[in-house]
């Protein structure tokens, strides 16, 4: 779905493993990939400075990436000093990246302040789509499994939909990138509308289901015009758990969401994007909506 990818890794997220499968990523349509690692400043002295020892270790650790570059693929490794967010934004701009990939670790609400700070802040500032890749998924896959996953990184994408203003914007952004996707990448998507049964006890359910089916049917026709296979799933239930279950049972590779950010880490009010981010065992594609 994307041609130019920036992968920001801190090593504990396992994203540097993707550097072992460049031919498979190329087969899936990736034309350029940049690996970024940020080394914290050495702060044991009175004045913070670059930690040259850790920079050298990072360079050595990522040196394997440029040893086997497929023909026609552009590959780069960037080691920077300091906090990640500013460097991610600058490197993405320098290489004109289509998407940024970062790792995530599912956490509970009580530990959100430790979990989402960098990703939430990044999502509020980034101008290109952001893919969050769960760390357990990366470490659970064998080399053979990850090789296959890289070939079909975003082959089948789930698109949650409802009656909010964000949903049409999500579809519009998805269509924009799908229309210019490389060959052998995105093939299929599923429009998912979960009508929250818990807040609609007094409302007739059949008419709501039929209305949702009709709206998604019109969108299906638009997306099918982009040479995509399009599925529809409409049901009563709880949005976040049901979307995650559908993704798991349907071989969906990633779930698409959109908004101004992925949800404040200190926001105790229910937040759909944040809850998906915390609970999903599949990557999320976040499309930033900027005025």
TrEMBL record:
Pfam families per UniProt: Usp
Domain UspA intervals: 1-131
InterPro entries in UniProt: Rossmann-like_a/b/a_fold (IPR014729), UspA (IPR006016)
Stored PANTHER family: SENSOR PROTEIN KDPD-RELATED, STRESS RESPONSE PROTEIN NHAX
Family assignment from sequence similarity: Belongs to the universal stress protein A family.
Name of protein: Universal stress protein
Species: Planktothricoides raciborskii FACHB-1370
Lineage of producing organism: Bacteria, Bacillati, Cyanobacteriota, Cyanophyceae, Oscillatoriophycideae
């Amino acid at each position: 779905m994307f041609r130019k990818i920036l992968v920001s890794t801190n090593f504990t997220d396992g994203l540097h493993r993707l550097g072992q499968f460049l031919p498979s990523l190329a087969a899936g349509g990736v034309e350029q990939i940049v690996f970024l690692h940020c080394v914290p400043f050495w702060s044991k002295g009175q004045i913070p400075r670059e930690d040259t020892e850790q920079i050298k270790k990072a360079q050595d650790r990522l040196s394997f990436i440029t040893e086997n570059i497929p023909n026609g693929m552009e590959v780069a490794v960037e080691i920077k000093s300091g906090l990640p967010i500013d460097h991610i934004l600058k490197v993405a701009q320098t290489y004109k990246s289509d998407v940024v990939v970062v790792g995530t670790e599912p956490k509970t609400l009580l530990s959100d302040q430790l979990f989402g700070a960098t990703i939430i802040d990044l999502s509020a500032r980034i101008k290109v789509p952001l893919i969050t890749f769960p760390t357990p998924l990366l470490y659970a896959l064998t080399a053979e499994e990850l090789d296959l996953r890289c070939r079909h990184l975003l082959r089948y994408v789930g698109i949650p939909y409802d009656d909010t203003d964000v949903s049409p914007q999500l579809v519009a952004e998805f269509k924009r990138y799908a229309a210019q996707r490389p060959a052998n990448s995105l093939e299929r998507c599923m429009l998912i509308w979960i009508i929250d049964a818990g807040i609609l006890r007094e409302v007739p359910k059949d008419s709501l289901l039929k209305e949702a089916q009709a709206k998604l049917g019109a969108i299906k026709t638009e997306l099918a015009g982009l040479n995509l296979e399009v599925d529809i799933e409409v049901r009563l239930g709880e949005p976040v758990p049901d979307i995650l279950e559908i993704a798991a049972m349907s071989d969906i590779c990633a779930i698409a969401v959109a908004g101004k950010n992925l949800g404040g880490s200190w926001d105790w009010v229910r937040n759909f994007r944040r809850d998906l981010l915390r609970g999903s065992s599949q990557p999320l594609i976040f499309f930033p909506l900027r005025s």
